[in-house]
Amino acid sequence: MGRARDAAGAYACPRRGERGFTLMELLVALAVTAVLIGMLVPVVWAWRQEEERAAQVAALVAEANGFFAFAVSELRRARAAVRRKSTWTCTPTTGSKSPTGWTRGASCAR
Q: How far is CA 42 from CA 35, 56, 97, in A?
């Protein structure tokens, strides 16, 4: 191991122009890096927009489910009122996974 020797046995010393990168090599490396980043940015941007769109759709579906549960409970109450029957309000359960705390609607007809 150690430094390389030339044919005469003397240590080979690199010439002045053979040390490091040339300016052209550095510019080519930067250009390739810029092209790769330019190709990556639109993909990441589209991915972020798709994730945001999916989150908005999930929020809309949750809102629609909540509205549907409310509408069903109001329909049950209205039917009970027309039939002159009593109604009561269901209480939320402790382990409910619904964001509003109700398991199946807000009120139940008796």
A: 12, 21, 37
Let me know how long the chain is. Answer: 110
Amino acid at position 68, single letter: F
Predicted TM-score of the model (pTM): 0.46
**3-state class percentages of the chain: helix first, strand second, coil last, to nearest 5:** 55, 5, 35
Segment 2-35, tens digit of pLDDT = 566 666 666 655 565 566 788 999 999 999 999 9
Segment 79-101, tens digit of pLDDT:
887 887 766 656 555 555 555 55
Torsion sign across C-alpha atoms 71, 77, 81, 85: positive
Domain ranges of the chain: 21-109
Q: Which amino acid is at 41?
A: V
